[in-house]
Design brief:
Helices cover about 50% and strands about 20% of the residues. Helix 10 crosses helix 11. The protein has about 600 residues and is an alpha+beta fold.
Length: about 600
């Protein structure tokens, strides 16, 4: 088979595989991607809601445990407070002993009670494990419990493990009067297990209590507590991680499994209640939702596959017609029309295609007219004029005219090669065009190194004088930046600007289909004369412009000047240097120095 035959065969083969792939990809995106996004969004919001709900549950359980612990310690504190209501006196030891024994009966968690007088001497000692003592005993005035109680009325001691097994803590309460002494109770914290054991979070969640050093105080598994400090090594890091998180945190639990944990501080004793739930249980509903979404995505893939196969065969013919029509439109055959009678959206698409072809023909004609208008108008102005043809008709209007002219251009053009001159002019014209477009002015045309701009025609503006001065300032700054670069390259070129305002006749002039928009009148000549008077980096304005912008633009009067074509001298104004903050420093000076060097 020859190459030509192979190419002919490949061109006649229906693109069934390519069409199938395209429709499969399209329908996959349309059917499957929303399912994936929906699943991702559902998982994201579900995770946030579930985590918020878990945080609320953990917060409530931890807070309840903290409140019960505080109630436990507050009850012991209040009971001890009753023991130090009255001052000590001779013969009260026996009565205080009876009160202490009664306290042991009422509060099973208290193991022993020591009652001290105002000097810190132990007067009564009652214990469940040791022999009771009555009468003046050891001096405990320097004991931390006594010092803490006298300083804060209530003192909670650190957790200690008796025989490295059961956790104990001392609580001391000082009387409201110094003579009432101090009561110190040793409390068995094993009884807090009842509080923690009652907390169940979900199926396997639980709560623990640790002190400020991370040592275990209470755990649902009481054997963990009875092991003393030996089993507390893993709880310090857990307390640190949970305490540093905002809300619930996912951490590694004591058994090495990931858990969701939240901590609450027991204010009085400085302990921390940590509520935990395994993540496998906490987020089980999220995993179930993801599995359901995966099944839906699998069904979506199958549906997309079937639809792609069916639609590829149904649409190949109309698509080929559309492809042929597009190719003809691309080559400019806007009269071509497509005929499809499928009775569905493809037929509607063919009708829209035919309408598009008609509109493209009209648009092509309009674009040609706009391109001609863009020769002397900014793009946005040309678009506006295209929809309002009367704007270009001859009329009398007050306009602001800006003339700009390069200084030293004649000497520059005689000393340099044409390619250098054209490169400079291209930069100059591009800069002028950009400024004109930026200020929505009308570019009347270039005259060698000179330029004429018009404001307030053909499109009127609210403050033409102010807009014209701002345009002149921008134009001067832009060209001066180029002049500095030209001067560095050895070209002594400057730029002067003249601005005038007054009535003029504006409209299009020309012949044989070539039309230009221009302005005619005395104001045009005046602006040109002012431009000729302007020095490098200077903007000169007539009295009309000065009177309109005096309150908004700083101006400096240069006095009366004789203007060619005017019978009387005319006051001329220069835009103050403060309005040219971006002028490259020393550009005009460098040009003058370059001219002196050339001479």
């Amino acid at each position: 088979m020859t190459d030509g035959a192979a190419q002919s065969s490949s061109c006649t083969m229906p693109p069934r595989r390519s069409l199938f792939c395209k429709y499969f990809a399209t329908l996959f995106v349309a059917a499957v991607v929303p399912l994936i996004l929906g699943a991702a969004v559902e998982a994201s919001f579900g995770y946030r809601d579930q985590r918020r709900q878990i945080s609320a549950v953990l917060q409530a359980d931890a807070r309840a445990a903290s409140d019960r612990i505080e109630a436990f310690t507050d009850g012991i504190r209040d009971q001890l407070g009753w023991m130090v209501q009255l001052p000590w006196s001779a013969g009260d030891d026996a009565q205080h002993k009876i009160d202490a024994l009664r306290l042991l009966q009422q509060v099973p968690a208290i193991v022993s009670v020591s009652l001290l007088d105002e000097t810190g001497t132990e007067r009564v000692f009652v214990s469940r494990l040791l022999l009771n003592r009555t009468g003046p005993g050891i001096d405990m005035s320097t004991d931390p419990a006594v010092l803490g109680a006298r300083g804060n009325k209530v003192w909670y001691g650190p957790v200690q493990y008796r025989r490295d097994s059961e956790p104990y803590m001392r609580i001391a309460v000082a009387g409201s009067l110094p003579a009432a002494g101090v009561a110190i109770a040793e409390v068995n914290l094993k009884l807090i297990w009842d509080v923690i054991a009652a907390i169940r979070i979900g199926e396997t969640g639980y709560a623990i209590v640790v002190d400020d050093s991370g040592h275990l105080i209470a755990h649902p598994d009481i054997s963990r507590v009875l092991r003393g400090r030996a089993s507390s090594g893993s709880f310090g890091p857990i307390k640190h991680l949970v305490g540093g998180a905002s809300g619930a945190a996912v951490i590694t639990g004591e058994r090495g499994n990931p858990v969701v944990a939240l901590s609450v501080q027991a204010a009085d004793v400085g302990w921390t209640v940590i509520a935990m739930q395994p993540t496998s249980e906490a987020f089980a509903s999220i995993r179930a939702a993801l599995w359901r979404s995966s099944i839906l995505i699998a069904f979506g893939v199958l549906i997309a596959l079937a639809l792609a196969y069916w639609r590829a065969h149904r649409m190949s013919g109309p698509i080929k017609q559309l492809e042929e029509g597009v190719e003809r439109i691309r080559t400019g055959q806007f009269e071509h029309r497509i005929k499809i009678f499928s009775g569905d959206e493809l037929q509607q698409l063919a009708l829209r295609f035919n309408e598009m072809a008609s509109e493209l023909a009209i648009s092509q004609q309009k674009s040609a007219r706009i391109e001609r208008l863009k020769q002397f108008l900014p793009s946005q102005v040309a678009e506006l004029v295209e929809h309002s043809h009367e704007l270009l008709e001859g009329q009398r209007r007050e306009v602001a005219v800006i003339f700009g002219d390069l200084r030293g251009f004649t000497a520059f053009s005689t000393r340099n090669e044409p390619d250098v001159i054209m490169a400079v002019m291209r930069e100059y014209y591009e800069a002028v065009g950009a400024v004109t477009t930026r200020h929505e002015a009308t570019l009347i045309g270039f005259d060698g190194d000179g330029v004429m701009l018009l404001v307030n025609a053909p499109i009127a503006c609210e403050q033409p004088a102010t807009q014209a001065v701002r345009l002149a300032i921008d134009l001067q700054m832009t060209v001066q930046s180029l002049a500095g670069k030209w001067c560095d390259a050895g070209h002594a070129i400057g730029f002067g600007v003249g601005v005038a305002m007054g009535p003029a006749t504006v409209g299009t002039v020309g012949y044989n289909g070539r039309l230009d928009y221009t302005a005619m009148g005395a104001v045009v000549n005046l602006a040109s004369r002012l431009c000729n008077l302007a020095n490098d980096a200077q903007i000169l304005a007539d009295p009309t412009i000065a009177g309109r912008v005096r309150d908004s633009v700083p101006l400096a009067s240069l006095g009366q000047r004789t203007i060619k074509g005017y019978d009387q001298a005319l006051e001329v104004f220069a835009v103050a240097p403060a309005d040219l903050p971006l002028k490259p420093p020393g550009s005009a000076q460098r040009r003058r120095e370059k001219e002196l060097q050339d001479h």
